[in-house]
Amino acid sequence: MLVAFGDLVIFTGNAHPRLTQEICSYLKIPLGKAEVFKFNNDNTFVKILENVRQRDVFIVQSTVAPVNDHIMELLIFMDAAKRASAGRITAVLPYYSYARTDKKDQPRVPITGRLVADLITTAGADRVLMMDLHAGQVQGFFNLPVDELTALPKLVKYFQDKNLADRVVVATDEGITKRARDFASKLDAPLAIVEKRRIGNADRTEALNVIGNVDGKAAILFDDEINTGSSMITAAALLTRNGAREIYATATHGVLPGEATRKLSAVSEIKEIVITDTVPLEDSRRTPKITVISVADILGEAIYRIHNGLSVGALFG
Questions:
Q1: Most buried of the four, 21, 101, 155, 208, by CB within 10 Å?
Q2: Could you give the domains of the chain?
């Protein structure tokens, strides 16, 4: 039996209000009214400024830098909605931080991805909406419905429209191979893989070898997210040594902290970097090499389908 909820309402935290506004524009509804700020003592405060009793509430919050502040905002926002008698609360996380900490791969370390999932559940989420998780098992950290969306169709269309001759998709490491293979299949391109070694717990990697033929080809480096860009930079140098004709880099999430955009854009081997807007990228940090594709319509359509009891999976065939 389908449970009926009241009107749809979408709120935003301070992480990515531009994306939330674009989602609302897609759905042709106003952004929900709320105050979200910090007191002088660094305590976060949330006040919902409209009636949400029995309404279907969606709170959009990418857990981006400052990550812990934005996670706390989300938790407090959900608690406020729960105490205001919201009918259902859906946490919309276009980018989910701590997904890389999904298992104990060293002695005496936490599984922070699970901890954050527990916090979101405890704070009052009834379901969660995410996009292109770094580790699929994160879905299993939640004892509630989780919908994982993908930006793959957007990225595929972009590169189809570029009509690159003799192209090859290159997975930046073995861990992303399955997703890269799907991307390559949709582009009707072969797949190559960079053999990579991560150095300690620092954001440093070493590209050791490329498995597959890239000689004379247009190589599209593929990953789920670009953080410091070190993986892309070392992989691009390796592909150049192996004869790649031109190199592109693409990922769903462009985290790009600090000087990452400048460092990546300065790499002559990389012709273009294509990301989506799951993570905000201020205009001041954009460069001509970086192309940002909006996923507001994917998120908006998924929210519409969840609200109306329709299939989310049907979005992707």
A1: 155
A2: 8-150+296-316 (3.40.50.2020), 152-293 (3.40.50.2020)
